[in-house]
Write a structure and sequence with these properties.
The complex is a heterodimer of chains A (331) and B (528).
Chain A (H helix, E strand, L loop, with lengths): L19 H4 L1 H31 L5 E4 L3 E4 H27 L6 E4 L7 H18 L5 H14 L1 H6 L22 E3 L16 E6 L9 H7 L1 E5 L9 H5 L5 E5 L11 E3 L4 E3 L6 E3 L5 E4 L8 E2 L1 E3 L5 E3 L18
Antiparallel strand pairs in A: 1-2, 4-5, 5-6, 6-7, 7-12, 8-9, 9-10, 10-11, 13-14
Chain B lengths: L2 H17 L1 H9 L2 E2 L6 H21 L8 E3 L11 E3 H11 L4 H28 L8 H23 L4 H15 L5 H9 L8 H31 L13 E6 H26 L5 H4 L15 H12 L4 E4 L2 E4 H29 L15 H21 L1 H7 L4 H40 L1 E8 L5 E6 L3 H8 L22 H14 L8 H8 L2
Antiparallel strand pairs in B: 1-4, 2-3, 5-6, 7-8
Helix pairs in contact in B: 3-5, 3-10, 4-5, 5-6, 5-10, 6-9, 6-13, 7-8, 12-13, 12-14, 14-16, 15-16, 16-17
Classes of the chains: A alpha+beta (331), B mainly alpha (528).
Chain lengths: 331, 528
């Protein structure tokens, strides 16, 4: 592709410059000693490792400049290992660089392409083989083989079916039912409105029967955040306001974006922030999204109190909690 | 013959009579490898992988990949009596009760981070020097595959301890799966054995992490190295280096000693980091429960760009006919990464199509001599870095006293505006560097010595550069743009007129260059 301009000439591989150790036996001896010292340092590293493993106490913490207070056993085990490994490498490379031949060698390359002769032979052999098997003529065999190979992939696919149950309505349901008590997490204590001061936040879960087990999969849908504001701070319609109780409002704690726990509450601005992707929800406006990638508000749980004065759910969530999915009816 | 020679000889004879290896060994012990620091990047990735196999095997001896609930009663007092999974408890056991266990955990994690760094920087080296060109396209694709698998393998690995941070990462991965139209919730329920988080996910990804993916890695790395071996390594341009030869050091003993020694150095550096720098202190995060989270949740760095894209996505969802499509998850979480990795894998073919170049290349390009490719690379890199920065937007905001909103808007605008700017600036820089090369060859090196002429004028003395250097600066080919005619020899319109026009235009952009110095130029200047 180059045009007719005359290019500058390639002067060729530069002449080899000898190293000191190539010419001076003294320098050679010195290099040899240096390599030996490096290998010896590695041996010392292993000794440090063994010493630390056996004799340094697990509970010994020491002050080390830059690192601060640190566990001595962990530190010296690591340093011993690091030294023992590093100096083997350093020794080998120093050896190669000072004492092994450093004259550059030239080898020739060959094009990747096979010789034309070989290619022709290959085509001939392949054609002969195909002709011997009569692939071209036996279309019945070819088609039935295609069918069986196409179908056989279904078996391993089907075998994966029992990896899990079908989703069914599972993503829509939580453990919250009409009258379920709100209990603290952790602690499992029922809550009265008076337990929450204005401005306070609490994480709650639905109460479970005595001795009952709460699976993580349940917490993943049931976790609820309680926030108490002054009732006049809400900007809600009558229906939403009816879902609060004396300024206490309850939201699903599972982010409507990707399901992280929406745990950061800014008391001054009354914003809820998800630490994963910074979706921000306005508590005074029923967790309306005011910033970030979330597209839907956090579902609100309607709450009230029972005859004993403990907070309960009025009814289940009216929409699925957590991230979106194809079957979710979000209208 | 000494005793040692006799023994070596008989062992060699024994092996050769059974394998016929002598002929192959004879040829390959002398195999030539060119020397350059940037060729060590791939080696670092390989050695980190070996270190990962060794340290990972050690960890499996104590790790219990189970989500069975246990009550912790180990040495770490702050978590005493807490409910947690056996996976988390056994990770605490490795960290606090197995001597050297924490060190090995940290070696495993640091090696994983270094593995990914080495892969990415190695990829950049291969890209910017054009080492992916014919005949090395297959190896480029294998490399992109290894990068992709590395990201997945790393994610699964740091998910295994089942701590609060990693569990949050799995939660996000589950939300991405769940967002897939039609099949999403089904795949999620199959993967997790029911609703998130279930009790089967950790054991399942453990098998994938320690068996399935390492197996695929081993196979791909083997093919990757065999191809390097068979095709012979590329070399940087320089005196005596041509497309037909390879200049360097023989495998035995020099290259073996250097490469073998380098393995120990990489291992030593990782061990040192693991001794002094704490990483992933899972005991501080606590066990995973879906109802809790820690502020400043961050993935490992090689996932950061993905998280950054998700963070900056606008809140778009389509609600219609009783269905929901989450564009805010699908676009940043699946579609954009899909485009990025497909584009990366196909780049060698795209460039060959644009340039029309079908020849083999073994001499590497100096990035400045291919301005278009270098600028495209800078553009892609800028895109990824803005995304990566946004993945840490909360940390950056708190560190530099910014608001999250400022960071987010910077990223949202920056990811669209900065990459094209990077393209233009890089292309101009490359051309300027070409011009500087031209000046250097024509006028020599500035010596800094000023001389006052009899006339009173000051001039700086220039010293001619060596013939070797002049060759290195001018050996490259200057591409000629394609000119696909709109009509054929008989004056008939050729098919695909628009495609050809587009290809011509891209080819012209690809071939922009400052004319390099020719021998005539030099002769002319001598006469002055």
């Amino acid at each position: 592709m180059s045009s007719e301009v005359e290019v500058i000439k390639d002067p060729g591989v530069p002449a080899h410059i000898h190293r000191q150790a190539d010419l001076d036996p003294k320098a050679e001896k010195k290099a040899e000693r240096q390599v030996a010292i490096l290998f010896a340092l590695s041996a010392l590293g292993t000794i440090l490792f063994i010493y630390s493993y056996i004799w340094i106490s697990e509970d010994l913490f020491i002050y080390f400049p830059v690192l601060g207070t640190t566990n001595a056993k962990q530190l010296f085990l690591g340093l011993g290992l690091a030294l023992s490994l590093f100096f083997i490498g350093a020794g080998a490379i120093h050896w190669a660089k000072t004492l092994m031949p450093d004259e550059e060698v030239i080898a020739m390359r060959h094009e990747m392409r096979s010789e034309d002769e070989d290619r022709r032979e290959l085509v001939k052999t392949a054609k002969q083989g195909a002709a011997a098997a009569a692939l071209g003529r036996r279309s019945l065999i070819k088609r039935s083989l295609g069918l069986s190979l196409g179908l056989i992939g279904l078996s391993p696919l089907l075998l994966l079916r029992d990896l899990g149950p079908l989703p069914g309505k599972d993503l829509e349901k939580t453990s919250w039912k009409s009258g379920t008590r709100l209990v603290t997490d952790p602690g499992d204590r029922p809550i009265k409105p008076s337990d929450l001061e204005v401005g306070a936040v609490a994480q709650v879960l639905p109460a479970i029967a005595e001795g009952g087990h709460r699976a993580l999969s349940d917490i993943g849908k049931d976790a609820v955040l309680l926030i108490r504001l002054r009732p006049e701070e809400f900007q809600l319609d009558a229906e939403r306001l009816g879902m609060t109780y004396q300024g206490i409002i309850a939201f699903s704690k599972i982010c409507s974006h990707m399901g992280c726990a929406v745990a950061l509450y800014e008391q001054q601005t009354k914003h809820l922030l998800c630490p994963c992707h910074q979706s921000t929800f306005d508590v005074t406006r029923a967790a309306k999204v005011i910033f970030g990638p979330a597209a839907r508000p956090l579902p609100q749980l309607a709450i009230t109190v029972d005859s004993e004065g403990y907070l309960i759910a009025q009814k289940p969530f009216s929409e699925p909690v957590g991230p979106s999915y194809w079957e979710r009816n979000s209208q | 013959m000494t005793a040692r020679e006799r023994i070596t000889g008989s062992v060699a004879n024994y092996v050769d009579e059974r394998t016929g290896a002598a002929a192959w060994m004879k040829k390959n012990l002398n195999k030539v490898f060119p020397d350059h620091w940037s060729f060590l990047l791939g080696e670092i990735a390989l050695y980190s992988f070996i270190i990962l196999l060794l340290s990972g095997t050690f960890l499996t001896f104590w790790f219990d990949p189970s989500q069975r609930e246990v009550i912790y009663d180990g040495d770490y007092q702050p978590l005493s009596g807490l409910k947690m999974s056996a996976a988390y408890a056994s990770t605490l056991h490795i960290s606090f009760e197995v001597r050297g266990g924490l060190l090995m955990r940290q070696i495993h994690h640091w090696a994983a981070l270094l593995f990914m760094v080495a892969i990415v920087v190695h990829l950049l080296r291969v890209y910017f020097t054009g080492a992916f060109r014919k005949p090395r396209e297959f190896n480029w694709i294998i490399g992109v595959g290894l990068l992709t698998l590395g990201i997945v393998e790393g994610f699964l690995g740091y998910s295994l301890p089942d701590d609060l941070l990693s569990g949050t990462g799995i939660r996000i991965a589950e939300a991405i799966i769940q967002a897939l139209p039609v099949v999403g919730s089904y795949i999620a329920f199959f993967a997790f054995g029911g609703a998130f988080p279930g009790e089967v996910f950790i054991p399942r990804i453990f098998t994938v992490h320690v068996l399935l993916l390492p197996g695929i890695f081993l196979a791909l790395i083997t093919v990757h190295l065999m191809l390097v071996w068979y095709q012979k390594h590329t070399q940087y341009p320089g005196p005596g280096r041509t497309e037909k030869n390879v200049v360097g050091y023989p495998l035995f003993p020099v290259y073996m000693a250097k490469a073998g020694g380098f393995f120990f150095i990489v291992f030593g550096v990782i061990a040192f980091l693991s001794a002094v720098a704490s990483i992933n202190p899972i005991w501080l995060y606590g066990p995973y429960t879906p109802g809790q989270i820690s502020a400043g949740s961050q993935p490992d760095w090689y996932m950061g760009w993905l998280d950054g894209l998700v963070r900056m996505a606008p809140p778009l969802e389509t609600h219609a006919f009783g269905h929901t499509i989450s564009w805010n998850i699908l676009i940043p979480g699946l579609i954009l990464p899909g485009i990025m990795f497909t584009g990366l894998a196909l780049y060698p073919f795209i460039e060959a199509w644009i340039s029309g170049d079908k020849r083999e290349h073994h001499i590497l390009d100096r990035p400045r001599n291919v301005p278009n490719r270098t600028a495209l690379g800078a553009m892609a890199l800028t895109f990824t870095i803005v995304a990566l920065l946004n993945g840490g937007n909360d940390i950056i905001a708190t560190t530099f006293n910014l608001t999250i909103n400022q960071m987010m808007w910077f990223s949202r605008i920056g990811i669209l505006v900065l990459p094209p700017i990077a393209f233009v600036v890089t292309k101009r820089l490359c051309l300027s560097l070409q011009r500087a090369d031209r000046d250097l060859v024509l006028h020599g090196r500035e010596t800094g010595t000023l001389v006052r002429m009899p006339s009173g004028e000051f001039v700086e003395i220039h010293e001619p550069i060596s013939a070797e250097k002049a060759w290195t600066l001018t050996q490259h080919e200057q591409p000629v743009p394609l000119e696909l005619p709109a009509t054929d020899a008989r004056g008939l319109k050729r098919p695909g007129a628009i495609k050809n026009k587009l290809r011509n235009r891209m080819s012209r952009a690809h071939a922009v260059a400052v004319p390099k110095v020719s021998a005539q130029d030099l002769k002319e200047i001598e006469h002055h």
